[in-house]
Structures are given as C-alpha cells and as structure tokens.
Amino acid sequence: MCANRGLEDNGYWLRILKGSHADVYLNRAVLRGYAVAICSGPHVSESTQLAL
C-alpha cells in the first residue's frame, strides 16, 4: 500500500479522497466497495503514536 501512495489509480485501488492527513482508496478488485484510509505521515506501529 505504501509503495502506491500518491497514485490516482493502480488497477486495484482508486483514490477517492486526497486529504491533508490521509488518502482514501476504494478497492476495485476482490472486495468491491471496501475503502482504506492510508495515513500520509510517517510509519507507526500503534495508532497512539500518531501526532497530527
């Protein structure tokens, strides 16, 4: 997922929202209608480590 961050469309995921803190992608392959939000900040292991 991180390797595709910033792409509009990679064949499986279609970016439907480019936000200031995260991008939201819609899955078009296996799980149609499934959306994923990917944080645009650094990698963290726990959500409590996120600082906005």
Essential attributes:
3-stranded antiparallel sheet, 0% helix, 33% strand, 52 residues, elongated, 3 strands, mainly beta
Structure description:
The protein is mainly β and about 50 residues long. The chain is about 0% helix and about 35% strand. The chain has no helices and three strands. Strands 1-2-3 form a three-stranded antiparallel β-sheet, with no helix packed on it. Strand 1 (about 15-20) and strand 2 (about 20-25) form a beta hairpin. It is elongated and about 30 Å long. The two termini are about 20 Å apart. The model has no long low-confidence stretch (mean pLDDT about 80).
Count up the helices: 0
Give, in order, the helices and strands: EEE
Low-confidence stretches: none
- Rg, nearest Å: 12 Å
Number of strands: 3
- Taking the alpha carbons of the first and last residues, their distance comes to 21 Å
Shape from CA axes?
A: elongated
Task: Enumerate the strands of the largest sheet in spatial order, edge to edge or round the barrel.
Answer: 1-2-3
How much of the sequence lies in strands comes to 25-35%
Structural topology:
Elements: E1 13-18, E2 22-27, E3 35-39
Antiparallel strand pairs: 1-2, 2-3
Summarize the structure.
The protein is an all-beta fold. It has strands at about 15-20, 20-25, 35-40. A three-stranded antiparallel sheet has the order 1-2-3, with no helix packed on it.
